[in-house]
Amino acid sequence: MVQIIALVVAASVGIALRQLPDYALQNATDYAAEMGRLRAAYEPTLGPLVGIFERLGLFRIFTTPWFAGMLVLLAISIIVCTWDRLPKIRAASAQSRVEQPSAFFEEQLPGRGLVEIQTAPSALTLEATAASIAAVAKSEGWEVEIGSDPERADGRIILADRFRRSGRFTLISHAGLVLLLFGAAVSGAFGYTQGILLTSGQALPIGKIGAAGGIVIKNYAFTAPRDATGAFKDFATDLGVFVDGVEVARRIVRVNEPLTYEGWSFHQNFFGPSAALTIRDAAGALLWSGEAPFTSTAEGSPYATLPVPGSSAGLELVLQRDAAGVPAVLVIASEPDPGVSPTTDGALALRTLFVSVLAPGEFATAPGAAFTVRLESLGSYTGIIARRDPGALMVWLAALLLITGFTLTLRRPRARLWLRIRASERMVSAALLLERGADGAKAARILTRIGAISAGESR
After folding, report:
1. Phi and psi of 144, rounded to 5°?
2. In whole angstroms, how large is the CA radius of gyration of the chain?
3. If you ran DSSP here, which 8-state letter would residue 17 be given?
4. Contacts for 20 with CB less than 8 Å, ≥ 6 apart
5. Residue 345's pLDDT band (boundaries 50, 70, 90)?
6. Which residues have a Cβ under 8 Å from the Cβ of 214 and sit 6 or more positions away?
7. Are 145 and 159 in contact (CB under 8 A)?
8. pLDDT at residue 323 in the model
9. For 214-267, what is each residue's pLDDT tens digit?
10. Which of 249, 267, 306, 382 lies 20 to 30 A from 206 at CA?
11. Residue 104: how many CB atoms within 10 A of its CB?
12. Helix axes of 49-56 and 28-46: crossing angle, nearest 10 degrees
């Protein structure tokens, strides 16, 4: 229980604190960049605790060796505890003794009573009557044994046992739990997840750049059709996968229809608008051409920033619509102002070079700017989640084992029914023992089929 509580606390911290993305753990540059974002988010409230949390690995809990060690230790503990319980499980599912003394059938005990059969058996018909009762129980799905009455030679005891082995199915649940923990440890230690933003026609690598056999994914086309109300009906990406420059897989991916390749899965996850721009210098030479994705918002409008290659200037882009709903891009070009001292927080003062609102095909510049900006078109970018999870199969199998084990254990509680018949007696002594949750109606149906239950005598 202490181990489970410790894992729950650690996992809760991992859920509460923003975690480093998997790609940030591949190289120092990405790690520094992502930790810089986390410090900016948490230092105003946590202060120096951020550094302590980083050293403890609290920003990457699910990939730390100590978390994987806790999972493995809990799995070992469950195995040891299950091994210790094996004798009890074996005893609980063992075959019951058929022969029982008269004290076992005393009517004041719980679950005891009498069943009246239509005709009292004789010494000659005793075996046939016992066989008939056994046949009724077998037809209802019970295991049946017939034994002798230890107190009378002209008596027989029938034991009907239902779901005798259900207790053993807890071993399936325990095996599923252990496998789930190992799967989680494998996923945390060796799994990888990365969100990739791709504009139209763009290709980007997955994981570590330059690695042999590295994977590159390419956005051939993105579609997001709308219905008559303007709501999106669907969004999907025509995605290609390349290895060493050769395309090895391609398909249309959606949220629940991923492209899979060699243990990788690529899901459609998000999308947004983008602007295709061309930036040229004063002489008309090309400085940059491509799509700028609007990944942020400013006053409720899509917003993006873009540096101007070869200069200290930068662009701010805001996607807007006029009263008629026609889209346009507000372009604000600025550069650091060397004549103004930095602010108290170290930020450089900026001076605006020009501000323009561009429709597709229009361009903007100003006498003080050494470049021009042309809006070629407006489009969309797509967001793909790339995931490699070597523990996924173990987790799915574990889930199947857990569901199967719990279902067979909880939905099949054991029930046992002893019936004692004696020659020349129409009243049959009955003893019904039910585990919690067992269906007593099954036993009642057997008793009804054997004979009418006497109204003041049966219990």
Report:
1. -130, 140
2. 37
3. S
4. 31, 34, 35, 38, 59, 60
5. low
6. 205, 206, 207, 208, 243, 244
7. yes
8. 74
9. 899 999 999 988 887 778 888 899 999 999 889 999 999 998 899 999 889 999
10. 306
11. 15
12. 140
Q: Is residue 159 a contact partner of residue 433, using CB atoms and an 8 Å limit?
A: no
Q: Angle 170-190/392-410 helices, nearest 10 degrees?
A: 160
Alpha helices in 157-205 (DSSP H): 170-190
Q: Which two tokens stand for residue 331?
A: 């372009």
- What is the reported pTM? 0.63
Spatial CB neighbours of 361, under 8 Å, sequence gap ≥ 6? 374, 375, 376
And the tokens for 36?
């810089």
Q: How confident is the model at residue 346 (pLDDT cuts 50, 70, 90)?
A: low
Q: 301 phi and psi, to 5 degrees?
A: -110, 150
24-33, 179-188, 398-407: range with highest mean pLDDT: 398-407
In angstroms, the CA 133 to CA 63 distance is 62
Tokens describing residue 450: 């054997």
Contact 204, 198 (CB under 8 A): yes
**SS3 helix, strand, coil % of the chain, rounded to 5?**
35, 35, 30
Name the DSSP class of 19: P
Q: At residue 345, what are phi and psi to the nearest 5 degrees?
A: -90, 10
List the structure tokens of 302.
Answer: 């899509």
- What Å distances lie between residue 14 and 9, 56, 58, 60, 390, CA to CA? 9, 12, 7, 7, 21
Tens digits of residue pLDDT in 416-449: 999 999 998 888 999 999 888 777 787 788 888 8
Residue 90: its H or E element: helix 65-92
